[in-house]
Amino acid sequence: MQRFQSFRQFYPYYLSEHRDRRCRRLHFAGSLGVLAVLLWAWISADPWWLLAAPLIGYGFAWIGHFGFEHNRPATFSHPLYSLAGDWVMFWQILTGRMRL
Fold it and tell me: What is the rounded CA–CA span in Å between residue 61 and residue 19?
């Protein structure tokens, strides 16, 4: 297992684990789904919806890794950096800095 001193060191590794566009698309869809669930939980004032957020987010991402990248998600070895990486990549795709 690689050790990283900072997120800045980790992010290039994170991107190298997301070379397949289908995996990035699934990550993007999962993150968008998480935002939709959070919004719905707030609008409906039903906190039970919050249980769906990690299932959607990780579910889509892990399908991408196991089905297309054929690698082990960084979530298992670097959970916090991986979570941050998901949202940085989501933002970069949303703003056009990374291809979807």
Answer: 13
- By the 8 A CB rule, do 52 and 30 touch? no
For the stretch 40-66, pLDDT in tens is 999 999 999 999 999 999 999 999 999
Report if residue 2 sits inside a domain: no
**Rounded to an integer, what distance in angstroms lies between the CA atom of residue 87 and that of residue 65?**
17
Number of domains in the chain: 1
Cβ 27 vs Cβ 98: under 8 Å: no
Tokens linked to 49: 């919806």
The predicted model scores a pTM of 0.93
Per-residue pLDDT at 84: 98
Residue 79 belongs to domain spanning: 45-100
